[in-house]
Amino acid sequence: MSRFFVLFFVSILIDFSFSITFYLPVNLRKCLREEIHKDVLVTGEYEVGEQPNAKTNLKITDSSGHTLYSKEDALKGKFAFTTEDYDMFEVCFESKSPMGTGRAPEQQVNLDMKHGVEAKNYEEMAKVEKLKPLEVELRRLEDLSESIVNDFAYMKKREEEMRDTNESTNTRVLYFSIFSMCCLIGLATWQVFYLRRFFKAKKLIE
């Protein structure tokens, strides 16, 4: 029972889903950003309130500017894509109207996004593969376990990369400090000999 509770608690932290409602002014653009791991299924459902003489466009892109989903005059619909790499993804709604902003009311936008285990339709999977309820739950726990292992592997990789970067930076700082000290010692030695020769030339010292 305790293992199941821990697994369920970790699933809340890792497999993220959210539903958000906001208002989009006319001739303005609003974007939502989220970091998602590699090879993760992302699904979403949106609904935009109708506005006369206004058209709302939906566009989903990654940090490189690649378009993953695009829809003009988006009023209601669904989207789905699988991430190819760990990246920052941006979901943008843009309202356009030739009439200008004026006093036009804002459009209400409802967005429901899921990714990871939460995005998979296990009910449909059960119908296709003719799985029993217990088998469906085991399949879900199996996918959840795989997701947790992948996330921990990714965090371990990031920790190794940060540790290597830290060690490399420390080594460079050490070498730079030694070089700076050698330069200062050399400069100080040169100043001593130069001043000694100068004072001898002026016969201030013997």
From TrEMBL:
Keywords: Endoplasmic reticulum, Membrane, Signal, Transmembrane, Transmembrane helix. The chain crosses the membrane at residues 173-195. It is found in: Endoplasmic reticulum membrane; Membrane. Coiled coil: none annotated. Residues 29-180 form the GOLD domain. It is a single-pass type I membrane protein. The keyword tRNA-binding does not apply. One of its GO terms (cellular component) is endoplasmic reticulum membrane. InterPro entries: Emp24-like, GOLD_dom. It comes from the Eukaryota. It holds the Pfam family EMP24_GP25L. Belongs to the EMP24/GP25L family. This is Transmembrane emp24 domain-containing protein 10. It comes from Osmerus mordax (Rainbow smelt).
